[in-house]
Design goal:
The complex is a heterodimer of chains A (310) and B (450). Chain A has 310 residues and is α/β, with parallel strands linked by helices. Chain A has ten helices and 14 strands. In chain B, 66% of the residues lie in helices and 6% in strands. Classes of the chains: A alpha/beta (310), B mainly alpha (450).
Chain lengths: 310, 450
């Protein structure tokens, strides 16, 4: 899979404040890339650089292998976190205007808008002003204006904020549909659940540095602790006898039918060894590896990074 | 379509379609006319009759009939009753309480100060208008003059009158011999243009600022600057709103032209028929055509200066200085809008920006009386005031073409520099939320390379 966006050694400062320090990352074509990081880490700065709202002090940004050019913005769709529309302008008129600014002709804009308005069942809003719509409704309109020019690269900053669960689901489905049609999506969010559900790759920025990046599965593997959850029938004491330098009992919860134990396996040993030992004395009900979720990885990576910078 | 054109179109159409714009465009000239007529009506329409008591204890301007005891004016040509003023005379003043109860509205007391220095107290229940005051003043002044000539100087008044000369100026510029100039009247017309420019710059400059603040506070600016450059957005807004101002002005000119030509032909027919009665009754019978009437009107000394004004030049200058001044100030207003988060924060920046404009307005008002002052010369070239001041200066016929051109060139150079400066503030400011900008901060933005 080729890379649609390649960021190499990008730095950016605002006065004395360093917003980005030599950040390099690559976004694969047709993937969903999760851009993560705490507030004020530098995500918005990076997004603004990709959108050519600001320029980097150092480093390069390649879009489809070429240095960023003004005409590239017609292939990029951007839904900022801080978003809004002209309150007194009619919905239809406003969408046409924004589409024209992205390079669409008026006729083409009207044609595509009709399709999307019908698809979202909001044709009745065409002649309403934005101030007549609820926040969620306005967000829907804004989503349409972001994707209307069928951008190859979509940058969505907190796209689900302001939506109720039903509409959030609708937006999520549309994102996956756009992905299946070949669009690449950069998703910047604090909602780790959606990262887990949608992203193929992630990049985590903290204190202006890219501290973690790669495919979600690989990142997760990197944060595994060889921790396993085993449900068994028997007593805790019987389990305790089996523990030694190769297996460490982290936690044992007693339930009515069976117990659940969290066991760390030392390097050089595996689940087979553990289950083999346990089966001699106890009855195994189930066993699975505990893989950290994105939320845990996020907190761990950021805490580690902050410790090293202290 | 070019993106800047799209922005201009949106800014223009969204404002021109507003009800307030349409109402102002049609109501503006009518409102102006109503205001002017209203001002005239205030002085004209005072229909009440004033009972004025002249108290003359020293017997200088009145005399007493020894048989009837009535006091009446000594000089029969003065203190004649008119439609608005009815005079009564007395040797003794009416005490305040009695005056309140009396039929008089005004009481003039001719005391020593009046006789010696012309200072006269007048007591009133109802304050007399300009016209009544002038009549009372003229009557008193002329009577006292006669008293001095006859009683103190012991001269023959008729001889004295023949010796008296009253001077009136007719200003003629040496470059334009054979025509009276009427510089002050023309300067006044220039001042009206100056007020228009002052008003338009403020009205539309503030609209630019509000527009920028609106885009910033509702956050659409982030979406738009991902499609166009901030400078394009700023210029699109400035040009679009400027065109709205020009549209309004042109509509006003057009409407005023229609209204005034209707008014003028009415006025002309009145004057022409009046003149015709005196000069040639026959002409009136055969009827005068419109051209003759206009000719009559233009030869009328009282108003022919109005037609001497080079209106094409004035409107041309107005358009130039409006556009130049507007660009200069609107770019500053755009920068202010970008630097703040809400309109309430604009105060600290508004003052230094609007001060030169207000100052220009004051200078141009003062120039009606003294159009050749050094201040007038300086501020009609100084770019922050020239759009307003030059409108008055240009009406004075001694103002050279060279001076106007110099003022124009300086204005153009300055507004280009200001637009560039404002652009630098704007591109940083519009993306800064929740941070109150200080002058120091703005200086950083100007130097900063995004």
């Amino acid at each position: 899979m080729s890379e649609i966006l390649k960021i190499q050694g990008v730095s950016k400062s605002y006065g004395k404040h360093k917003a980005l320090s030599s950040v390099s990352l690559a976004v694969r074509s047709g993937s969903v890339y999760g851009l993560l990081g705490p507030n004020g880490a530098g995500k918005t700065s990076l997004i603004r650089i990709i959108n050519q709202i600001t320029a980097p002090d150092e480093g390069t940004v390649l879009f489809k292998g070429e240095s960023l050019r003004p005409d590239h913005i017609e292939h990029i769709g951007y839904l900022p976190e801080e978003r809004g529309l002209y309150k007194k302008m009619k919905v239809g008129e406003q969408c046409i205007y924004l589409a024209q600014l992205k390079g669409l002709s008026k006729q083409e804009a009207v044609k595509r808008l009709t399709y999307w308005f019908e698809r979202f069942d909001i044709m009745a809003w065409w002649n309403k002003t934005i101030e007549d719509l609820s926040k969620g409704m306005a967000q829907k309109v804004q989503f349409i204006t972001t994707i209307l020019h069928e951008p190859e690269l979509l940058i969505l900053d907190e796209p689900f904020s302001g939506f109720d669960p039903i509409n959030a689901k609708l937006i999520q489905e549309e994102m996956l549909r756009l992905k299946s049609k070949g669009a690449t999506i950069i998703l910047s969010t604090h909602d780790m659940g959606s990262v887990e559900e949608l992203c193929d790759d992630i990049g985590l920025i903290d204190q202006s540095h890219l501290v973690l990046s790669g495919p979600v599965a690989e990142v997760k593997a990197k944060f595994k602790e060889n921790l396993f959850e085993v449900a068994y029938k028997g007593t805790a004491m019987e389990l305790g006898i089996l523990m030694g330098h190769q297996f460490e009992l982290v936690q044992n919860d007693v339930a009515s039918e069976y117990n659940i134990a969290k066991i760390r396996i030392s390097p050089g040993h595996n689940l087979n060894n553990l289950l083999g030992a346990m089966m001699q004395k106890l009855e195994i009900v189930s066993a699975r590896e505990i893989i950290p979720n994105m939320n845990e990885i996020f907190i761990k990576a950021v805490t580690q990074n902050q410790k090293t910078h202290e | 379509m070019n993106k800047i054109l799209l922005i201009i179109k949106r800014e223009y159409l969204s404002r021109v379609k507003k009800k307030s714009f349409i109402i102002m465009t049609f109501l503006g000239p009518i409102l102006f006319a109503a205001l002017m007529f209203g001002a005239i009506a205030v002085t004209m329409n005072d229909n009440s009759v004033y009972q004025v008591l002249i108290v003359d204890p020293y017997e200088v301007i009145t005399q007493k009939d020894s048989t009837t005891g009535t006091v009446y004016p000594r000089f029969t040509n003065h203190f004649k009753d008119s439609e608005k003023v009815m005079y009564s005379f007395s040797r003794t003043a009416v005490p305040p309480d009695a005056f309140k109860e009396s039929q008089y509205q005004v009481m003039l007391e001719v005391d020593e100060a009046t006789i010696n220095d012309g200072k006269c107290n007048f007591f009133y229940k109802k304050f007399p208008g300009e016209f009544v005051q002038r009549k009372m003043g003229d009557d008193l002044e002329n009577s006292l003059e006669k008293h001095r000539v006859i009683d103190s100087l012991q001269l023959d008044y008729e001889k004295y009158k023949r010796a008296k000369v009253s001077v009136s100026f007719a200003d003629i510029n040496v470059d334009n011999l054979g025509q009276e100039d009427r510089t002050q009247e023309k300067a006044f017309i220039g001042f009206i243009f100056a007020i228009l420019i002052y008003m338009f710059i403020f009205m539309y400059g503030v609209q630019v600022m509000r527009g920028v603040i609106e885009e910033k506070t509702n956050r659409i600016v982030e979406v738009i600057v991902s499609s166009v450059k901030p400078f394009q957005l700023m210029m699109g807004k400035v040009i679009g709103i400027g065109l709205v101002g020009l549209t309004q002005f042109l509509m006003w000119v057009l409407l005023s032209f229609v209204v005034s030509s209707v008014g003028l032909s009415f006025f002309a027919s009145n004057i022409a028929s009046g003149a015709a009665v005196v000069e040639n009754a026959q002409v009136m019978q055969t009827g005068m055509d419109q051209a003759v009437m206009m000719n009559e009107l233009m030869n009328n000394q009282a108003i022919n200066w109005f037609f001497q004004i080079n209106w094409t030049l004035m409107i041309g200058l107005f358009l130039f200085y409006f556009i130049g001044g507007y660009f200069l100030y609107a770019s500053l207003f755009a920068a202010i809008g970008a630097a703040v988060d809400s309109e309430t924060d604009t105060q600290q920046f508004m003052a230094p920006v609007s001060l030169p404009l207000v100052f220009g307005y004051i200078i141009s008002a003062m120039m009606i009386d003294n159009p050749e002052s050094w201040a007038g010369n300086f501020f009609s070239v100084f770019p922050l005031t020239s759009p307003v001041v030059m409108m008055v200066k240009a009406t004075v016929s001694s103002t050279s073409v060279g001076m106007i051109v110099l003022s124009m060139v300086i204005l153009v150079i300055t507004f280009i520099a200001f637009i560039a400066l404002a652009g630098r503030i704007y591109r940083v400011g519009i993306l800064m939320y929740g941070k109150k900008a200080s002058y120091k901060e703005i200086w950083k933005w100007i130097k900063y390379n995004p």
